[in-house]
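Priority: medium. Attachment 1 of 2:
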C-alpha cells in the first residue's frame, strides 16, 4: 500500500525568525558551557577575567544585554508590528553576525564551529527579514 503524500505546511516568516533566534541562543549556551572546559578558563574566572575584560558591574551588564537581546527576539519576532520586526531582525541579525566574526579569531575549534553556525543563523535571519512577504501578492524567495 502506497503512502499518501505528506502535506507541506507553509511556515510564517515570524515563526522562522523566532526559531532562528532560539537556535542562536542554543549555540550561545553551548559555546559558553563548552568554554568552561578550556584549560585555564575557570582559574581566569576566579581571578576576575570576564568575557569582555576584567569583571565589573559594567562589563557584566553589557554581557547580560548581549545575551538577553537574542532571547527576547524569540518572543519579539512573534509580536512586534511587521515593519519594526523586520528592521529589528535585519539590524540585530547583522549586529550579532559582526559580534561573532570579531570574537572568532584565535578561538578554539569548537567555538569557531559554533561561530560559523551562528553566522549562518544570522545570515538566514537577515535574509528572511529582508525578504518579508508584501501585501498584494508580490512574493519573495524568503517567504515559504
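Attachment 2 of 2:
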Amino acid at each position: 500500500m502506497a503512502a499518501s503524500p505528506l502535506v507541506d505546511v507553509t511556515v510564517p516568516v515570524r515563526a522562522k525568525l523566532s526559531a532562528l533566534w532560539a537556535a542562536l541562543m542554543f549555540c550561545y549556551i553551548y559555546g559558553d558551557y563548552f568554554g568552561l572546559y578550556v584549560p585555564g578558563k575557570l582559574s581566569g574566572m576566579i581571578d576576575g577575567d570576564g568575557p569582555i575584560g576584567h569583571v565589573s558591574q559594567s562589563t557584566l551588564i553589557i554581557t547580560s544585554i548581549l545575551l538577553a537581546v537574542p532571547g527576547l527576539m524569540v518572543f519579539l519576532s512573534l509580536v512586534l508590528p511587521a515593519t519594526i520586526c523586520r528592521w529589528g531582525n535585519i539590524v540585530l541579525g547583522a549586529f550579532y553576525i559582526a559580534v561573532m566574526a570579531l570574537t572568532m579569531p584565535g578561538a578554539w575549534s569548537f567555538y569557531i564551529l559554533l561561530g560559523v553556525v551562528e553566522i549562518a543563523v544570522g545570515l538566514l535571519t537577515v535574509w528572511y527579514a529582508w525578504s518579508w512577504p508584501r501585501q498584494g501578492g508580490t512574493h519573495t524567495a524568503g517567504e515559504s
